User: Fold this.
Amino acid sequence: MGMKEKLHQLKLKYQDKKMAPAFNAIHTFLYSPNETTHSGSHVRAVDDLKRTMNTVIMALVPCLLFGIFNAGYQHYSAINGFPTDFSLMEHFITWDNFWLGAITVLPLVVVSYGVGLLIEFIFAVIKGHEVEEGYLVTGMLVPLIIPVDTPLWMLAVAVAFGVVIGKEVFGGTGMNILNPALTIRAFLFFAYPTWMSGDKVWVHEGVQRAGTADAISGETILGYLAQGNTEALYAKYNLSEMFFGFIPGSVGETSTFLILLGGLFLVFTKIASWRIMASAVAGSLVMGLIFNGIVDAGWIPEYSKFYGLMQFDFWKHLIVGGLAFGIVYMATDPVTGSQTNKGKWIYGFLIGFISVMIRVFNPGYPEGVFLAILLMNVFAPTIDHYVVQGNVRRRMKRLKNATILPKPSDGKAEELKVETV
Amino acid sequence: MALLSKKDANLILDPLADNNPITIQVLGICSALAITAELQASVVMAISVVFVLGVGNVVISLMRNIIPSKVRIIVQLIVVATLVIIVDQVLKAFAYELSKTLGAFVGLIITNCIIMGRFEAFALGNGPWKSFLDGIGNALGYGVILIIVGFFRELLGSGTLFGIPVLGDPIAKTGLYSIGYENNGFMIIPPAALIVVGIIIWIQRSRNKALIEEA
Assistant:
C-alpha cells in the first residue's frame, strides 16, 4: 500500500475530528485528493491553487539562492573590500558566501513559514475549514523583501500581524484586500524603522558593528541617490552590477536579471498577468521620463534634495531597488489586484507611476514600491467596478441603437435586456 | 439595599459592554484615535468626557420642556461648549503640560458624537436622574475603551505606563531591552489605534454572537 493510500485512509478515519483540517492540509499538499465531483458535468484539472502557488515558489527559488550568495558577498566585500576584477565563480559563488548567506537567510525563511503556517493551522482548526494554501507564496516572499539582519522575533511579530490583520480577519485566502507579504513589510517598516532603513541594515553584522573600529556599511543605490552622492555611486557600482544584482538591498530583490527570468516563467505558465507587469513597467518609465524632463528643462536646482533621484535615468529605476521584484511577484497577486483586463492595465500603470513618484519625493521612504502596491490594492475593486460599469453602459447603448427583430411587445426586448446586463 | 433599580443600573452597565459607544455604536472614534498614544491622556480625556456628559445630560434634561425643538441643537451646543470651556480652563490651571498634550482635543469634545447623541437620544426625553446615569454610563463606556487602547499603545509603543518605564530603559538596554526587545513605533501612530479598536470589536463580537450585525 502506497503512502498516498495510507494517507487517504487516515483522512477518512479522522474525517469529523477537530484536527482534521490540519491533517488534510498535509495530505493535499503532498498528493492530489481522491474526491471527485458527483453531480453535473465538470472539467477537472490539476492546476489548482496549490499548483499555482508552487509555480510561483519555483519562480522565487533563483532569487532566494541569489540572495543567499549575495548576503555573503556583501558581508565579506564590506570587510575585505570589493574585488577589483570581479569574477562570478571566484568572488560570488563561493562556499564562504553560501555558508554565511545560509545561516542568515534560511532562519528568516523558517520563521516566516513556521509562524505563518502555525497561524493558518490555528485559524483552520478554530473555524473548522480546510487549511488554505495562501501562505505558501507569502511565506517565501517575506524573507526576500526584508533586510538580511532583521531580528527573528520582529519577523515573527510582523508575520503574525500580517496574517491575522492582513488576511484572516477578512476571511482568509482569497478574501484579503491587501497583499499579506506587503502588509508584513509595511508593519516592519513602521514598527521598527531603524531595522528597515539606513545604510547599516543591508549588510550582515552592519548594525552590531556600528560605532566600532570594524564598522561596515552598505548603502543602497537609492540611498546614494537620495543623498545626492551620484559620483560616489558610479564609482562603486556599474550598470551590470545593478542589473545582475551584486548590490546591497533586501535579501532577494537585488537581481533584476533573475526577477526578469522569473517573470517570464510566470507569464509563460500563465500564472501571473503580463498586462499588469507590462503596464507597471510603462508606468514607472513614464514617471521617470517626467522627472528627467523636469531636470532637463532646468526647473529644479541642483541643490534640491530631490535632484539626485530626479536626474537618475528613467529606465534605471527598473534595475535598482525593489521595483522589479514588486512588479513581477506582488503587483500580479491575483487576489488583491484588478480582475478585469482593462482594470489590470490601469492598476499596473498606476503602481509603476506611484512607485517612482514616492521614491523621488519621499526620501523618508527610499523605496516606494510597497506603499504603491498597497495603495493600489485598496483601489483595485474600485477600478474593476468602473470597468464593469463602463462595459454595461456600452452594451446598454448598443442595445438601444440595435434593431430588435422581434416586436417589442412580445417581451423579447426585456429578455435581451436582462441578458445584456 | 439596591442603590439603583435594575433598570437604572442597566443605564450604566449597558454602555460599558453590550451597547458600548465606541465598539458597538462606533461613535467618538476620532478622539479614540488621536489621543490614545499615552495612557495619561486617555485617562484625562475619559474623566473630562464623564464630567461633560454627566453634567450636560442633567442640564439638558432639566431644560427639556422649555427648549423649543427648532433651536434645540443650538441650545445643546451652548451647554456642551460651556462645560468644555470649564474643563479646558481647569486643565490649563492645574495640569498645564497635560493640556498642551491634549491640545485641541479638549476643545473638540464639543464635536464628540457621543455627547450630542446622548443629548438627542436620551436627555431630551427622560428625567434628570435617569439622564445623569445614562450620561455617566456612556462616558464610562467610552473611557474604558480609551484606557484599554491607551494602555496597549503606550506599553508597546513607548514601553511606559503613565510615563513610567515598565519594560526597562531602551537607551541603557536594561530589562526587556537587554535581550533585544524594541519599542514598536507602529503603535505610536494613529492607525494603530484603529487596529487596536478593531481587535477589541472582534473579541467582543466573537464572545457575544448576538452583537454581530446581519450582513
